């Protein structure tokens, strides 16, 4: 056992101190490994969840794009049908001069109505453009300005105390601008609900006037019953198609809004998934480094314990060397002939060789403790024989006669 070995207490204490330091650092390294493994597992789960979220967002985007394309195709078909209805209505208006005069009046009314309709559409287009501008700027703030500023907070951690107030002020300004834009969008919406309703009412009044003239046209066409029937059919079909057309236009607007929302969600999910991938890779690398550090300390612990085991062998072999009885010169000769001398010297070389293997280890506190014990072993070897050989050159004789070269300690 450790306590019953022939190794001097000073050597035991030095090895014990070195071994305790190695064990302490190995335990700390193992704690790092466990913490890194837990963080890596959490990051892996988060990465999987964000990957699923990204795939779901991309599927929503695909459906939104398909819905927008379908709405656009339906709108195009309705425009073609309306154009065809207009051509039929023009043919019917040529039946009689009175009917043509009434139709002229109707066309004038219709022109006024269409002008107002165009004005209404232009106004709505203007509102939509303004709203889109507000939305684009908000999107730019959400996607670029705020993320960039927030990223600056992360990247410039070293300058945190100096720049935090400025960046937070910029974030507050961007957030205030976003709130301002949101308010403008709401104001735009309110304007559409008020002024837009007024424009729509004016348009409806013009449409009603147009319908009254149209009714007179139908009365004047009573003499040409077939033309009247055709006119009624064409006009009714056109009105129905106009109503259906505007429903499809509204459906297209809804589909476009859904597509824009889906695009933003998909892009956000992609960014989050990529960030999670980078975070997971970094944590996996940290765990690998922690595992290597733990393994290095375990290996160092084994080497330190090996040095002690070799020291036990050395002191046992040292005890087997017989004490010579003669003068110093005679004692040198007797020691040279002692068969226990070569195993003793070889065991010393084994200790020093094992210790020198630790010379490149970057753990100065551990090596310093170990060096105390090694210095003690070297001193014990020398003084053990000096007390028998006095001032004689016994070192050269006992090493040379056994055909051995003394290994020198290479630890600084």
Overview of the molecule:
- It contains eight helices and no strands.
- It starts with 8 loop residues before the first helix and ends in an 11-residue tail after the last helix.
- It is rod-shaped.
- The mean pLDDT is 87.
- The protein has helices at residues 9-92, 97-155, 160-220, 225-320, 328-337, 341-356, 364-389, 394-401.
- 87% of the residues lie in helices and 0% in strands.
- It has 412 residues and is mostly helical.
Low-pLDDT stretches: none
Characterize the overall form: rod-shaped
Number of continuous helical runs:
8
Q: Which structural class fits the helix and strand makeup? A: mainly alpha
State which percent range the strand residues make up: under 5%
**What letter string, H or E per element, gives the SSE order?**
HHHHHHHH
Q: Evaluate the radius of gyration.
A: 48 Å
Average residue-wise pLDDT: 87
Give the termini distance in whole angstroms: 30 Å
Helix percentage = over 70%
Main sheet makeup: none
């Amino acid at each position: 056992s450790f306590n019953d070995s022939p190794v001097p207490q000073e050597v035991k204490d030095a090895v014990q101190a070195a071994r305790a330091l190695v064990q302490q650092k190995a335990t700390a390294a193992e704690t790092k490994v466990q913490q890194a493994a837990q963080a890596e597992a959490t990051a892996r789960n988060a990465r999987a969840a964000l990957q699923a979220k990204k795939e779901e967002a991309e599927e929503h985007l695909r459906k939104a794009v398909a819905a927008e394309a379908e709405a656009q195709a339906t709108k195009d078909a309705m425009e073609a049908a309306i154009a065809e209805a207009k051509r039929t209505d023009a043919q019917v208006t040529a039946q009689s001069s009175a009917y043509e005069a009434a139709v002229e009046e109707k066309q004038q009314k219709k022109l006024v109505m269409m002008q107002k309709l165009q004005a209404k559409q232009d106004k709505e287009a203007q509102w939509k453009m303004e709203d889109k501008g507000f939305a684009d700027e908000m999107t730019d703030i959400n996607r670029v300005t705020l993320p960039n500023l927030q990223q600056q907070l992360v990247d410039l951690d070293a300058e945190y105390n100096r720049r935090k107030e400025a960046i937070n002020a910029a974030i507050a300004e961007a957030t205030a601008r976003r709130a301002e834009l949101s308010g403008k969008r709401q104001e735009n919406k309110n304007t559409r609900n008020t002024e837009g309703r007024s424009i729509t009412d004016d348009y409806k009044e013009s449409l009603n006037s147009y319908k009254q003239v149209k009714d007179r046209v139908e009365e004047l066409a009573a003499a040409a019953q077939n033309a009247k029937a055709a006119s009624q059919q064409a006009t009714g079909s056109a009105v129905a198609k106009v109503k259906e057309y505007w429903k499809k236009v509204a459906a297209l607007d809804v589909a476009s809004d859904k597509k824009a929302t889906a695009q933003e969600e998909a892009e956000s999910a992609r960014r989050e998934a990529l960030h999670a991938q980078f975070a997971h890779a970094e944590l996996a690398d940290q765990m690998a480094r922690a595992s290597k550090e733990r393994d290095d300390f375990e290996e160092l612990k084994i080497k330190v314990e090996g040095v002690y085991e070799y020291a036990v062998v050395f002191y046992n072999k040292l005890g087997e060397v017989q004490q010579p009885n003669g003068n110093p010169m005679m004692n040198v000769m007797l020691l040279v002939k002692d068969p226990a001398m070569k195993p003793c010297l070889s065991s010393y070389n084994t200790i020093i060789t094992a210790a020198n293997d630790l010379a490149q280890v970057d753990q100065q506190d551990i090596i310093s403790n170990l060096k105390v014990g090694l210095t003690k072993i070297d001193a014990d070897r020398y003084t053990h024989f000096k007390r028998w050989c006095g001032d004689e050159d016994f070192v050269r004789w006992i090493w040379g006669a056994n055909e051995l070269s003394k290994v020198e300690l290479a630890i600084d």
